[in-house]
Amino acid sequence: MSRVRGRDTKPELAIRSELHRRGLRFRVHQRPIESFRRTADIVFRPAMVAVMIDGCYWHGCPDHHRPSTKNSVFWREKIASNLKRDQETNETLSAAGWLVLRFWEHEDPRSVADRIQELVIARRVSPRHKSR
Q1: Residue 30 to residue 48: CA distance in whole angstroms
Q2: What pTM was computed for the model?
Q3: What burial letters (b/e) apply to 84-120, b meaning 16+ CB within 10 Å?
Q4: Which of 12-21, 31-40, 69-78, 116-125 has the lowest mean pLDDT?
Q5: Cα 74–chain centre separation
Q6: pLDDT of 51-65, one tens digit each?
Q7: Which whole-number Å values give the CA distances from 131 to 34, 39, 46, 52, 79, in the listed order?
């Protein structure tokens, strides 16, 4: 497990590259809320948008996750705890006014970037977020 990348994965890099190419600027691997010990893969602070790129195995993708046959109880509990933590993260950030976007690692980087760009621009022009 120590060899599993927790940041700067190929899907993350592809999406970040596409966003940067479009002129969007962001922070990477930062805590949206400083006191909350969870990081987002991509953070747009002024728009208050946190983007997570979830791995199919580690986050239980309904299309691609295949349960392990070895040590299955451990892995089933591990994935369940990851899903619970993801839900807690979504709820905490949302309650603080953040928009949380989650995408799967298998999704097309261009379509992911389209969606992110659309929502970031919409939140940037929103009167609620202009003063921040």
Answers
A1: 12
A2: 0.86
A3: eebeebbeebeeeebbbbebbbeeebeebbeebeebb
A4: 69-78
A5: 24
A6: 999 988 777 787 776
A7: 20, 24, 9, 25, 39
Q: Are 57 and 123 in contact (CB under 8 A)?
A: no
Longest distance between any two alpha carbons in the chain, whole Å: 52
Q: Which domains does the chain have, with CATH numbers?
A: 10-124 (3.40.960.10)
Question: What tokens does 66 get?
Answer: 């295949």
Predicted local distance difference test score (pLDDT) of residue 65: 67
Amino acid at 54: D
In angstroms, the CA 16 to CA 14 distance is 6
Q: What's the number of CA atoms in the CB half-sphere (13 Å) around residue 33?
A: 16
